[in-house]
Amino acid sequence: MNNIEDMYFDGLKIKKHAKRMGQIADDWDEHWDEVFDAHIESFATIPSICWNCKIFLTASYIRCLCCARTFCPHCDIQFHSWNVFHQHVAVPCFIPSLCQSCRSINTLTLEPLKNKYMIVVTLLGRFDLNAASFTCHNPACGATNEASVRNYVNAGYWPGSPTRTCTLFTQTYMVHWFHTKHQIPSTAAMKYIEVSGKMSSEGGRNPVINPVMFRTASSQFSYIQHKIDVDVKLNEFMRCKACVLPCKYCHFDVIFKLLKQLAGNIPLKKIAKDSVIVSDAKIQSYVEKINKLKPQKGYDNCGNSTYKAGKENTSRHRTQDETGLGSACYRHGVVLVTANLKSEENYRVVNFSQHFLWTLGYVYFCYDVICNYGKFFKDLVKVSEGHKMHDEWMRMTCASLGEEQEQKRYEKNAKKTYLESLADIHSRLQDDIGIHTAIVDSWQDSSLHQVRTGRFI
């Protein structure tokens, strides 16, 4: 009887948690543009005054994100010669230049709001601080306004929710976590905030950090950084910069070690959509197109065993919402296209990647189960123009084409993605692919120089 009651109350907790997460996702959808604009504005140079000498600054000045003050070059050197490390935490907000009530310029001062508190998480842990407010010293005004989400984002802080400022994370904290989770793939988010909690405890402060706010802020911050890289810096992650199109061949393989179960039935949306990982809707549309030409018929055989690569649906992974990730990479290790698998390693997703690569000019399509795929592919000539197919296995092909790019690197994600939502996993893998490509790009200059000069390390 007790077990039944426990299961009932656990179900109620999951429903409430899913509803709360859904509301947070809706808030981000509604206010995402506003937060994005505020983040872009934080990089702008706007007229201001020096905190120390009160000189009006129009072009050249220094914004210290640690002490949240604006200095002229001379005062910056003088002030920071005595504040080298900035281990203190100040009220986290820069002072706007314009009063929203009377529209006066440079009449605002920063004051703590006595009746409202907030949580600020930095690399030194959690701090419980007063919220910031701005008081106008114009005799005809005297208004006091609380700092908004836009003010905090401009000051270098990131909210867990776009409608509330109860929890803020410093951008340095977000950047540190971004690089930690990708350079040490087995690091879990809960353990990361536990480390911050331990640092808070050692300082005599409250160690509790809301994991929901942290995951939401991290996902949104990563996506905005991705948008800046793609839309502003015009970086192309899914292209090999060392090669001149059309390239000759590409290798495709999948990994099933990324367990993707929908944790707690949380209906979060995939933030990045299909900017790196092809959208599920596009894959499904392509699969339906193939099924009209070649309907599914039982199992496809490979050698003496029954191989299910050609089967669209399977009961083997029926408890998982996504079973793995299929990627195609060039010999230099650059991932060119990747997609989620909803069932087994089926030929329909493989053919989607082949068709995509054909549109880029690739001639040879290499695959480790090529013996049966050749027969499958010949039935689909109306969907995808032909690559040169040998229908045979070539020894050491995977070793030369870099199959380990997903088998060795992405399997480390299995320990920390088992109970994450699909949206969190989608965001994590998208960022990881971009970072992997950036690392490959950083190696290519020296590698190509060595090839040209005949010098190898």
UniProtKB/TrEMBL annotation:
It holds the Pfam family CxC3. Coiled coil: none annotated. Residues 89-202 form the CxC3 like cysteine cluster domain. This is CxC3 like cysteine cluster domain-containing protein.
